[in-house]
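Q: Okay, next protein. This is 3-deoxy-8-phosphooctulonate synthase from Sungkyunkwania multivorans. I've checked the sequence twice, so it should be correct. Can you predict the 3D structure?
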Amino acid sequence: MQLSSIPKLKHIDANNFFLLAGPCAIEGEEMALRIAEKVVAITDKLSIPYVFKGSFKKANRSRIDSFTGIGDEKALKILRKVSETFDVPTVTDIHEVSDADKAAAYVDVLQIPAFLVRQTDLVVAAAKTGKVVNLKKGQFMSPESMQHAVKKVKDSGNELAWITDRGTMFGYQDMIVDFRGIPTMRQFAPVVLDVTHSLQQPNQSSGVTGGRPEMIETISRAGIATGVDGLFMETHFDPANAKSDGANMLDLALLEGLLTRLVAIRKTINSL
């Protein structure tokens, strides 16, 4: 399932789902280390393979005055410090071809944002780094169409591709997860369910994306029951004051209870 190719990834023999989790954006060193420490402790306790997630920059903002980052090099060095401090792999998203090699020097998984997953040059650049490439399904794309994004990675000489479902546009200001797409996409690559972005309410008139975090557990449970290989979720100790995507993030204080229940569901699924 390709997990053995990721350095520092633990618990890969636990027959559990794997987890990509962390803040939306790297806001500073202290906050990143604080979140990572908590999630590492929980995932070690529950034997969940864990990859720390944090965007080193946010290029797809609604407004020009939205937070985009603390500086590329500074944020990437924080991601490296998280990895070294807690002995865990890391993932970040890239937006330009030049980001691929730059980010690959610091992280273990490169993520292609949903709006950019059809950008051939970007996908190929990520693939040629040799890192795992996590392809976010476009909100405007069918599950079947993701086979072509996966093929771009593999045709570039890299067999390490994942697909992440982050919901499909349902009108102008809502997202929906079509769980029929999970088994379809698993024919092409391991599939991750992005729980928190699937609950976004984009295109608000304020220019700030809304969300429905109270539905995180519902979507997570359905994903595990449907057979996803991994879960993606953004979490923060103070979502209301997070600099990006706070409206749909999971409060860090709720993470252990949620994951404990999801592990129990996974064990039941495995026993059937």
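A: Here is a summary of the prediction. DSSP finds eight helices and 13 strands in the chain. Residues 3-271 form a domain with the TIM Barrel fold (CATH 3.20.20.70).
Q: Noted. On to the next one.
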